[in-house]
Predict the 3D structure of the following.
Amino acid sequence: AQSVTQLDSQVPVFEEAPVELRCNYSSSVSVYLFWYVQYPNQGLQLLLKYLSGSTLVKGINGFEAEFNKSQTSFHLRKPSVHISDTAEYFCAVSGGYSSASKIIFGSGTRLSIRP
Amino acid sequence: EADIYQTPRYLVIGTGKKITLECSQTMGHDKMYWYQQDPGMELHLIHYSYGVNSTEKGDLSSESTVSRIRTEHFPLTLESARPSHTSQYLCASSGVSSGANVLTFGAGSRLTVL
C-alpha cells in the first residue's frame, strides 16, 4: 500500500520569492508521483508527473519537482512565485498503471503569496 | 475546456432527502473515481470504477452508492442525506489517452445538508 505525507499544511511566501512544498511517500513497489493544483472553487488539475526516467520533472507555470528515491521524496519547487500561484497543492502517488492501482493524495499544502 | 462534467455544482437540501450527483466524461476513459473533499481540503477516495458494471469502495467508508452502466457516466447517490454528508464531492477519470494514472477532475459538487 502507498501513502503520502505533505509536511506543511500552509506555506506563506512573498511574491517573487522561491518556494518549496514538501512531499514524502511510502510504497513497497515502484511508484508514479504527481502534483496537482486546486484554485479556489475549482477541481484539481495536473501540475506535473514522474513516471520514470529523469528525476527532475518540469511542469506547467514554471514549477518543477525532483524525485529522490533514497529519501522517498518528491518536493515541488518554483524559483519565483506570483500572486496567481495562490492555491492548494496536492501530492499524489500510485503504484503503476494496472487495474489494481489506486491514486492516493496527500492532505494538501495551502500556498499563500504576499505582495 | 472541461471534458468531465459534474452537476449540480452547488446543492443545499434538507435531511432525509435522496440526492444524485452526476458525473460524465467525454474522453472515453475506462477508470472513474469519486473523492470526498473535507472542509480542511483533504481528499479521500470513496468509490472507483475500472469499467462498465465494475464498482469498488474506496479507502473512506461512505453511505453513498455508485453505478457504472455506461462508460461515460458515473453517478453518486445518497438515499437519505444527513448533515454529516456535507462536503465537496470531486469526480475524476483516467485512461489510456490521459497517460498512466493521470486524473482529469471535474469542477466538483458542493453539498450542504441542513
Q: What stands out?
A: The mean pLDDT of chain B is 91. Chain B touches chain A at residues 6, 33, 35, 40-43, 45, 48, 50, 58-59, 90, 92, 94, 99-108 (CB under 8 Å).
